[in-house]
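General statements about sequence and structure are easier to judge against a single worked case. For one protein, we set the task of working out the structure tokens from the amino acid sequence alone. The sequence in question and its structure tokens are set out directly beneath this paragraph.
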Amino acid sequence: MVSAPLKPHSSGQVPSSRERSLVPVGMATILPHAAKQVRRFEEQLLGQINQWGYDEIILPTFEYLDVLAPGLEPELIEHCYQFVDRTTGRTLLLRPDATAQIARTVAMGLTGVTVPLRLSYRTSVFRYEQEHAGRGREIFQVGAELIGLNDVASDSEVIDLMIECLHAIGLQSFKVALGHVGFIKGLLLRSGLSVQGQKLAEQAAARKDLPRLEEILASEPISKTAARAIREAPELYGQEEVLARGRVLAAGNQALTAPLERLAQVYRLLCEAGHRDSLLLDLGEFRGFDYYDGVVFDVFAEGMGAELGGGGRYDHLIGRFGRPLPSTGFALDVDRLFRTIEFPEEGSASARVDYLVAAPSRATRRLTAVAAQLRRTRVRVVQQTMKGSDTALVSAAVKAGLAQQAATVVVVGAPGVGPDEVLVVESFATLRQGQRTGNLGRLSKKMGLAELVASARRQVKERS
């Protein structure tokens, strides 16, 4: 996420270079309106995941490097923020990857021994990226992991769940690219590339860097047929015809046909679930983490130059920490999701608070009591002490209510209002459209405190 708001300032101005220099590069300050929207759709995501039986886990921000390292590839460790623990002298790192943390937690037995486990999380991961790389160094994620199952149904479950999460937050147009790490790894292994050549080719394929892949293939003594198959794989994407071409390239090799069959079964299950229009088969799909070893996937939306999230199967990761368990899962990038969805602007007519309760300073005690009673009904209340004369009290309270985007203003201690009464001004839609605040007589009415509280309860009930 960016420093300052997630979207441009309401004035349309971009933060100045001085403003940017006051916040570490790649870190986020999310301003109130954006924070409200982010929290809302985080709750929508987690609510959807919870409906599928996944329980939230809260992960530590720091980890010991030597403990988490078995689950992290060397390149990721190089991009971690590391520092020394003053108590033990051991190296700590800021959390770079939630999946590795969950694998470590499960392997240690902290979640018990019963499987399958369905876990969810919302968290930040921290990775050093060059400023020109186009992404933050603090990455906000919501994700889910299904641990202890290794079958087609579990592969399709996590992808199905991810798609339903995207629908839950209002994202309609997107594509999920499905692949299988085993297919392209099998092509590389069959080709006779050196171990180093295979690793470099994997990295190039993951980035879809075809010129670099061509360079690697040309540097090693492999057959033209093998090189042609490897070169073709990253460009094999589409629908069922992709699987047919993959089988031709496999030429009956079981190490290549088995991944294709697993991928085909997952694809069919997801199509039967009604997701065909959101799916894209991609035999070059190769996620950037080396712990993936089965069906993998990324999700893309028009207008975003990078994936919104993704995941896949990692059957050997938990075993690195001592307890082998098959697993699959996904993570969504909250910042990128936020940028794909339209939210109301902060200056819109929607109410920011339900009630602004105002009173002169001499009625502070009553002000606090009225605000407290309203809050017990679970409405959102802001309280404010007003300065100035009693004659200007109501007008000043209404102006404050407009500034706070309140749906209703409640004035305590207004002239001519009894000790168990308040003055209520409700029709704020008219006022926001420009009516003078001097015409308040027909917009305001006296109301008993008990009646006001009952009205607030009705409002909450109607909303729920």
About this structure: Residues 17-340 form a domain with the BirA Bifunctional Protein; domain 2 fold (CATH 3.30.930.10). The CA atoms of residues 48 and 165 lie 6 Å apart. The longest strand covers residues 117-126.
